[in-house]
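Cont'd.
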Amino acid sequence: MEKIHDLIIIGAGPAGITAGIYAKNFGLDCLIVGEEAGGLLNGSYRVDNYPGVFDVTGEELVKKFKAHQEYLEVPLKKESVGEIKKDGEIFKVITTNKEYSTKSLILAFGTQVKKLKIKNSEKFENRGVYYQSGHNVFLFRNKTIAIVGGANSAVMKAIKFSEQAKKIYLIYRKDKLRADKIWVDKLTKPENVEVIYNTNVMEAGGQKELESIILDNGEELKIDSLFIEAGAMPNTVLIHELDIKTNELGYIEVNKCQGTNIEGVFAAGDITTGSNGFRQIITACSEGAIAALGALNYLHKK
Ligand SMILES: Cc1cc2nc3c(=O)[nH]c(=O)nc-3n(C[C@H](O)[C@H](O)[C@H](O)COP(=O)(O)OP(=O)(O)OC[C@H]3O[C@@H](n4cnc5c(N)ncnc54)[C@H](O)[C@@H]3O)c2cc1C
């Protein structure tokens, strides 16, 4: 007979893993289905704002999250969900390999990178143009790189790469970086970082690989790589089938129990409108815990 889980959590980032930890402690038969344990956290250069754990890389913190999930034996399937369907009171979660059934759902599939309109940038994607991802800094030893963005991820990347790169241009469209002060202060130390304010990148150039960029002030910069850290937008593809309510930007609207407009469906982490829009590890974890409690209460009421 088909197995019906109490709860399926989609996404194995901080929100999804925390939801799994709480659901397991509540005694629910839960399953996490996620593409990559840790999610965005894997790309963090250094985490200094998660209580009890400091001066660690994102990858190191992910190892701790995973160890906790494995210690509690929370089942995790490393699969990508392609579709969610409602069949009466049961939800069907369809991945590339399998179909799972569940009485309740937590959507914790986070965000995806925002692409910028830079002429020819698609031509050089992964051949000099890269989006929000972790990279081995040693590959960029003595290289000249440009980073677009002014938030934590862009500033952290500039600090991290400054250890190996010859020159770094940090290009931001506004006149003041919006990263936390702790990172902006650290950025003033490396001498090979030049911050270019009030500027946008308009065009990418080169033969087979990226060789240069043109800025909106007309200047051309000769570079080896361009990293785009321009923020994120919600992953909304999966929610249309269920008619989940979102705000105008596509973030899932949640109530104080992390419930959505569909009974039995909860959402947590960067994908939601919760936590005053403050999308961090700690808020994702908090929303994951509250969503698990929401699912528990929902299942008890049934
Ligand atoms: C470079 C960088 C540095 C950061 N540094 C910090 C920091 O120092 N401190 C801090 O507090 N926050 C930091 N953040 C923010 C923090 O990483 C996020 O707020 C947090 O990861 C959000 O967790 P989440 O679980 O909601 O989503 P995510 O971490 O995005 O996880 C979502 C997961 O769902 C998976 N998924 C998506 N679609 C599907 C699907 N169809 N099927 C299955 N799985 C799917 C994704 O692959 C991913 O693994 C940083 C972010 C970045 C990008």
